Amino acid sequence: MKLLADENMPFVQELFGDRAEVVTCPGRDLRPEQLRDIDVLLVRSITRVDAALLAQAERLSFVGTATIGCDHIDTDLLARRGIAFASAPGCNKVAVGDYVLAALLRVAEHKGWALQDKTLGVVGVGNTGAEVAARARALGMRVLLCDPPKALQKTTDFVDLQQALACDIVSFHVPLTRDGDHPTWHLLNRHAIDRLNGDQVLINACRGDVWDNQALLARQQGKAPLTLVMDVWEHEPEVLAPLVPHVLLATPHIAGYSLEGKARGTFALYRAWCEQQQLGMQLTPEQLLPPSSIGTIHLHEAPDQALAARLVRLVYDIEQDDAAFRQALGQPGFFDRLRKQYPQRRELGSVQLTGLTGSGEALGFKV
Ligand SMILES: NC(=O)c1ccc[n+]([C@@H]2O[C@H](COP(=O)([O-])OP(=O)(O)OC[C@H]3O[C@@H](n4cnc5c(N)ncnc54)[C@H](O)[C@@H]3O)[C@@H](O)[C@H]2O)c1
Ligand SMILES: O=C(O)[C@H](O)[C@H](O)COP(=O)(O)O
């Protein structure tokens, strides 16, 4: 049994190594001939799995993507060819929650805002959107939810996109889709961008193509620029460089890059593959993770916005990611290099709060 995995996927050897010969490679450059003798293919979002890539993959019986998004996989093709497929829904939703929480706190500092007076619109209320909504409520924000596919099921109160786009801060958490009843490609188009006011903040931690980046650049070069947080970019790994100076926080598609999130991603594929092979699992995700270097923090006051900002920064400093991005921008291959060499990042939940913990748990810490 031969397994080929993206080199940026941790714990593959630990999980699969006893049962398969594991080889790794850069996911962006995978070529059809490399799949000739491969039984199991494990990828991340940068590998397009389509007819061209699988042209010589005659032995392939399992494809897994250790990601939430699946827009890079031709799942119909896999089904037609009888190749089992697994993704990792929700694997890095906590990391995305940490990222957006850190972004909200930084935005508030930048604008001098008390977040409890502000409204957040969450566009796409699945795993990551719900995580973000919960963190924002813990900060005392009013949260409006926009999810037309879910609104059809009427499980809770939803607003339409126009109402969500009227909020002080709008955070996007939709899959990238180009057809169907609710396509998300350029959901934030020139028309929507033109209707926003200059005091508003937009966050994109889902897929770059959900925002029209050229239209945003035009807006940012005008009289009333928006405050932008961008983890994802149209045409990655390329970035519309003139847009970057107009972005408050710019990062290279790392919102989901916690160690825990990546471990859960690989583990989800391990579980699916064990089920397909009718094998028992030999490890749990917890066994893969080292202890957090911070450990426990004792609080003498319940976290308000300022203390929450200090606590979050101790565990995840989003400004460091932003600074690294700006420093590397323009260097050849900078986007993928930053992602490949991304420092080990732990989730807020790896830190235990004791004492006056207040909303600590809802913010994402362990209490
Ligand atoms: N930046 C990162 O590192 C990172 C990490 C994880 C996920 N993502 C991206 O974020 C996306 C969302 O992740 P998730 O785990 O929340 O997915 P999910 O499938 O759990 O939720 C997506 C939600 O979006 C809703 N939706 C679909 N079309 C919509 C539309 N037109 N308008 C509003 N809502 C719509 C769906 O009904 C669903 O509830 C993923 O598909 C992935 O592409 C990015
Ligand atoms: O969809 C996701 O889960 C994330 O966008 C994804 O994990 C980002 O990391 P990549 O797969 O590109 O390494």
UniProtKB/TrEMBL annotation:
Pathways per UniProt: Cofactor biosynthesis; pyridoxine 5'-phosphate biosynthesis; pyridoxine 5'-phosphate from D-erythrose 4-phosphate: step 2/5
According to the entry, every stretch annotated as the D-isomer specific 2-hydroxyacid dehydrogenase NAD-binding domain falls at 110-255
The UniProt record gives the binding positions of substrate as S45, T67, Y257
Please name the gene that encodes this protein.
pdxB
Compartment(s): Cytoplasm
Write the record's keywords in alphabetical order, separated by commas.
Cytoplasm, NAD, Oxidoreductase, Pyridoxine biosynthesis
Q: Which organism is it from?
A: Oceanisphaera sediminis
Q: How does it assemble?
A: Homodimer.
The signal peptide stretch is: none
User: Which protein, by its recorded name, is this?
Assistant: Erythronate-4-phosphate dehydrogenase
Which positions are annotated as binding NAD(+)? D147, D231, G256
Per the database record, which ranges form the Erythronate-4-phosphate dehydrogenase dimerisation domain?
288-355
Q: Which family does it belong to?
A: Belongs to the D-isomer specific 2-hydroxyacid dehydrogenase family. PdxB subfamily.
List the EC numbers from the record: 1.1.1.290
